[in-house]
Design brief:
ABC transporter involved in vitamin B12 uptake, BtuC
Length: about 350
């Protein structure tokens, strides 16, 4: 019970501190802090439409961040959620368009499985490099983001390009409405149900299965993992596959949901924000849920900032950056203590 309360209070603390520090900073340079807070509240929860918009942006962030939680808690720094998100979306497109005409009862499961498989396979390559050759997964997964983004451009301007496109942005043609999970609002019973199932499944996986126990051991002390008779190879592959699969599922939700097609460079920060959400949430499922709702609300409030507070929409990026600084600052006291020890006369 105590751990659950801490998992909820931790993200709320970071969020409150970040907003307070940002408000003070903007006040010092001539903007109104009360208007900043009012803009965020109005844009996030000020009306039914605002709440719908907040949930719309929170859903893909939540599903993607759950995958990041699995990888990070297992001791693997998968920062390639953005590329895995794109890989899942591309895989969905290559299933939906060639098989168009099949009943939704067949097409929908096939498209979802393709999205999950696309993200999982995109994560498998850096997993094999890490587990076989000791390659730094931070570098390989990060580079995978750029490769996937280029692949998305190639697909939407090449083999699956919409011939009726305006030329303003490259995309595939719209998916038939019978296969869609939602309209342009991005909120529907289906999407909410999928996200809820993901929350429950990941919570059970991490807290009620042997995988969750071994993942915790691997994240804290890999030597203990060996003593328990487990292998890093199997655990690492499973962690990367689940992490990538969750990001791929989020990509499928976007293609079958609000986007209704594959668009070049859509949601370009989803994977990176998901990493921030996982860290803000303390790598816990409840914490990630709360942080996702907050960041979804921030995304929804972006349009309100220039109108109500006279702030550029990039002010949301400032809030995100302050949150990131607060997270990394947790290690500052220990690092500062080590620096003082190094500079002490005993080390001369």
């Amino acid at each position: 019970m105590k751990g659950s309360v801490q998992a909820i209070l931790k993200p709320l603390t970071y969020i409150a501190l970040a907003i307070s520090l940002t408000a003070i900073s903007f006040q010092l340079i001539g903007y109104s802090s009360p208007l900043l807070a009012k803009s965020i509240l109005e844009g996030a929860v000020g009306s039914p439409d605002a709440i719908t918009n907040s949930v719309r942006w929170a859903l893909p962030l939540l599903v993607t961040s759950l995958g990041v939680v699995v990888a990070f808690r297992s001791g693997f720094f998968n920062v390639g959620a953005q590329g895995q998100f794109y890989a899942g979306a591309i895989a969905v497109a290559f299933v939906v368009y060639p098989l168009e005409g099949l009943p939704p009862a067949i097409m929908t499961p096939a498209a979802v499985c393709a999205g999950i498989a696309g993200g999982a396979l995109w994560a498998l390559c850096p997993a094999i490099l890490r587990l076989t050759y000791g390659t730094d997964e931070v570098i390989t997964t990060l580079m995978g983001n750029f490769i996937a983004a280029l692949a998305l451009i190639e697909v939407t301007t090449g083999v699956l390009k919409d011939p009726a496109g305006t030329g303003q942005s490259s995309s595939t043609r719209p998916i038939d409405a019978v296969y869609r999970w939602s309209d342009a609002t991005g909120v529907s019973t289906t999407l909410i149900l999928v996200a809820t199932v993901c929350v429950v499944v990941v919570w059970i996986l991490l807290n009620r299965t042997s995988f969750g126990v071994l993942a915790g051991l691997a994240g804290r002390n890999p030597t203990m993992l060996v003593w328990q008779g487990a292998t890093e190879w199997r655990l690492g592959c499973a962690a990367f596959l689940v992490s990538g699969g969750m990001a791929g599922l989020a990509g499928a939700m976007e293609v079958l949901g609000p986007n209704g097609q594959l668009i070049s460079d859509f949601l370009p920060t989803d994977g990176f924000t998901a990493i921030l959400i996982a860290l803000v949430g303390g790598l816990s499922v409840p914490g990630s849920l709360i942080a996702s709702l907050f960041f979804g609300g921030l995304a929804a409030a972006t349009l309100y900032l220039p109108i109500m507070a006279g702030l550029p929409s990039s002010a949301v990026d400032v809030i995100n950056a302050v949150i990131a600084i607060l997270i990394t600052a947790r290690a500052w006291p220990k690092g500062f203590e080590r620096l003082l020890m190094f500079m002490s006369p005993a080390h001369d």
